[in-house]
Every structure is written in C-alpha cells, then in structure tokens.
Design a protein that fits this description.
- Helix content is 75%, strand content 0%.
- Keywords: Membrane, Mitochondrion, Mitochondrion inner membrane, Repeat, Transmembrane, Transmembrane helix, Transport.
C-alpha cells in the first residue's frame, strides 16, 4: 500500500479533479477520433454481416470500393466531441469517486477492499459519462449506418432532434449502460491490477518516465482486450437499436428483446476481431496519454491504494 503526499504547490480539490477530467477528455477524444475508420468498419459488420463478411481488412476494402476513402471518416465529429465529454466524466469521475471511498473508509480499509472500490468508482463515473455521450453516439451510429442521412454532426444531430425528439437520443441508453458500465469496470480493474503486478516486481521510483508510459501502454492493451470481450454483445445491440427509429408505439425494452433474439450469441459477437483491435489500441493509448498529461499538468496528488 502506498500513499502519495502531494507537494506544497500541487493542485488539490477542484483544481486537481479538473486536471484529471481534462486529461481524460483529451485521451478519449484523440484515441476514439483516430480510430474512427476502424469503428466505421466494425459498425458496418455489426449492422450488415451478410454484406460485410470478409473481416476487418476486407471491410476496409469494401467501404472504400463502394463509397470512397472519405466514408471511413463518417461520424468523426460526434465521435471526437462525444468522447471528449465522456472521457472527462469517466476519468475525472473515477478519480473523484475513488477518493470519496478512500475518505469514507480510511486508507487501510480502502486498500484491503480496493477491487470493490475500483468497480464501484468506475461504474458510477461511467453512468454519468454515458448521459453525456449517448446523444452524440446515437448521431454517430445514424451517420455511419445511413450515409445519406446527414452531412455531419450538427446537421445529423439537428435532424434527429427535429424529426424524432430528444427521446431518440436516449433510445440506446439502456444498452449503452449495459455495454459501457461493464466495459469501464473491466477496463479500470484490469488496468489497476496489471499495473500493480508490474510495480510489484519493478521499483516505480527507479524507472524513467518513458518506461512508465510503456507500462501504461501494455497494461492498457490487456485491459482493453478484457473490456472488449465483456461488452461486445451490448455494443452490437447498441448499433442495431440506433440504426433506424423504432416502430410506432414500440418501446425500448421490446426492441432490445427482439434484437437479442434475432442476433443470438454468435450474432452478438459479430465484428469482435475489429473491436478487439480497436478497443485494445484505444485503451492502451488512453492510459498512456492520460498518465502523461496528468504528469505534465502536475496532477499527481491523491492517494494510491494498490499494494
């Protein structure tokens, strides 16, 4: 167990958590935005597996051949904007809620129950993050699944709002929670445990900052693979439910049940190869960037509860 004593001029309170939030916003926006082409192919495979049945590389070739290379950037706007907001709430919230548990339980008890704290803190943070992300994710999926729907973020967002109302943005909120909350719980717990294992055999204070970034990258990659496998079925359902509006009078629950029956277990894992690559890369990049930005901003205060 280790407690980090902040320097006298280190940020605390709102100043500290705003740095955590900013670092999280940047790392999520940059990584998700950069992987937009992979996300486009992954979504196409999920929504039309009959047509896009040649794997990730084949899917890239099909999209380019049918619609041009520019189609691979479909949804970049809502992706970058949505995950900027989500990253701020997710990473900033995770640090905040983790600290609140430590304050309530005390350092020793918190350390002895750190896995439960990681799980509870990440789940709570992700709930609020999804409230911010859901409208932009719904817009992204509509743009990707219906290339002629709108020209971009603003026009697509406005069209959905005008024609379907604000409720349409949250038709996928249930499956998003079902996807994102387990995803984030797995992501943070596996990352924390992997880092803890590495620093159990390597002295953190004796290695370079570059080596620490490398450890964050490797741990993030492992965490990303775990998170992708856990959340894949809900990710597929989220793509399906946001592809088109529901039938008149059809509720979200009934739509989810119908989609689940249509997909089956095998169908729910359509596009898993592309998503493993995407989520592994994204998560590795996120934790590396997050750690580096925190260090640059001096956001190193707080308490670590790993042993």
């Amino acid at each position: 167990m280790s407690a980090t004593t902040p320097k006298a001029d280190a940020p605390t309170g709102l100043g500290l958590y705003s740095r955590f939030a900013f670092a999280g916003a940047v790392c999520c926006s940059v990584t998700h935005g950069a992987l937009t082409p992979v996300d486009v192919v992954k979504t196409r495979i999920q929504l039309d597996p009959v047509t896009y049945n040649r794997g990730m590389i084949g899917g890239f070739k099909q999209v380019i051949a049918n619609e041009g290379a520019g189609a691979l950037l479909t949804g970049f706007g809502p992706t970058a904007a949505g995950y900027f907001l989500q990253g701020a709430f997710k990473f900033g919230g995770y640090e905040f809620f983790k600290q609140q548990w430590i304050n309530q339980l005390g350092l020793e008890t918190a350390s002895n129950n750190r896995t439960a704290i990681y799980l509870a803190s990440s789940a709570t943070a992700e709930f609020f993050a999804d409230i911010a992300l859901c409208p932009l994710e719904a817009t992204r999926i509509r743009l990707v699944s219906q290339p002629t729907f709108a020209s971009g973020l603003m026009s697509g967002f406005g069209k959905i709002l005008k024609n379907e109302g604000i409720g349409a943005f949250y038709s996928g909120f249930g499956p998003m929670l079902f996807k994102q909350v387990p995803y984030t719980m797995a992501k943070f717990v596996v990352f924390e445990k992997t880092v803890e294992a590495v620093y159990g055999v390597v002295d953190k204070n004796s290695i370079s900052e570059g080596a620490k970034t490398g450890i964050n990258l490797g741990s993030g990659l492992i965490a990303g693979f775990a998170a992708a496998i856990v959340s894949q079925p809900a990710d597929t359902m989220l793509s399906k439910i946001n592809k088109t509006p529901g039938e008149p009078g059809e509720g979200t629950i009934s739509r989810l049940i119908k989609i689940g029956k249509e997909l089956g277990l095998r169908g729910s894992y359509a596009g898993i190869g592309a998503r493993l690559f995407m989520v592994g890369t994204i998560t590795a990049g996120q934790f590396a960037i997050y750690g580096d930005i925190k260090r640059l901003l001096g956001a190193t205060g707080g308490v670590e509860i790993g042993k």
